Amino acid sequence: MYRTAPLGKRPRWWTELPLIAVVYGLYTAGRLLVRGDVQSAVDHGLGILDLEKTFRIDFEHPLNRLFTSHPAIGIPADFAYAALHYLLTPALLVWLFRRRPDHYRRMRTWLMISTLIGLIGFTLLPTCPPRLLDDAQGFVDTMHQYSAYGWWGRDASAPRGLGGLTNQYAAMPSLHVGWALWCGVALWRHGRATWTKVAGVAYPLAIALVVMGTANHYFLDAVAGVAVMGAGFLLSRPAVRLADRIRTRFAGAAPAETAGTPAIVSGGCETAAGTALVRTSSPGSPAGAGRPGAPERLREADASDQIPRQPARGEAGDSRTDGAATAAR
């Protein structure tokens, strides 16, 4: 993964924070605004489940039975689902920003693009998660079963009473799995200790098991989350290059506007074209009687001032040439 330090500078936190806040705000608002029709979401969920049964990849059922029958597995899994998605991802962003600034922009851009692609999936394919399907499908909502141990209620990982602020039908693709994959790549590629390599492999695999065991996602949701991250990764390089091109163009626009404008130098002060500055004595001092070290003031010249004409560069050259010729004669 190549380095992407922007124009030879470290990224600045006062530009990164608003950018990340805007993208995450758009993502959150989009999830809430595109809830979709409940019946359509249920139909999509049943369709995914039927497709998995056809190919015998419906791993959600055995995992869900394991998590519901063993609290020692189900309770930590619920905590992992409710917390790590929102804690580890920003923590790794900060770590990359501080410790791996050469790689930060590419990784940040990859995460943002993938998140926006996931929002498109939520919009086009609202999907009911397994835990909200009819009881006849055989799924148990572990978040509800173990809610006494955590801060969440029946409304997924939202704190009690705030379920209305979540979109429970934003299951396809699974960005829990997608973001976990991003975290795994960050740990594997940019961590230097052995444990970071191990965590980089274990974390996304564990989250994939958690989202299915808690009945929050189907196996195909997890597959779609990986695909979304793959698409975001492919788009991140041209996106960074485009951003650099735009930055370079705007950075070079200001000097280009004044490159052909001559400057007038008056009394050691460089001024804009058409403006000259003249020295004046301090108030109350007679003209020309300035004390040594007394401050002088500058003002713009007007029609009453007599400013000696400065010979142009070509004229000065001609006078020197004429003087040399006279001396030779």
From TrEMBL:
Record keywords: Membrane, Transmembrane, Transmembrane helix
Domain of life, per lineage: Bacteria
Main location: membrane
Keyword Transmembrane set for record: yes
Low complexity bias spans: 281-293
Topological category with respect to the lipid bilayer: Multi-pass membrane protein
Region feature Disordered, mapped onto this chain: 278-329
GO CC terms in record: membrane
InterPro entries tied to this protein: Aur1/Ipt1, IPC_Synthase-Related
Domain Inositolphosphotransferase Aur1/Ipt1: 48-235
Residues annotated as transmembrane: 12-30, 79-97, 109-125, 169-188, 195-212, 218-240
Pfam family, one: PAP2_3
Localization per Swiss-Prot or TrEMBL: Membrane
Record PANTHER family: PA-PHOSPHATASE RELATED-FAMILY PROTEIN DDB_G0268928, PTHR31310
Name of the featured protein: Phosphatase PAP2 family protein
Provenance organism: Streptomyces triculaminicus
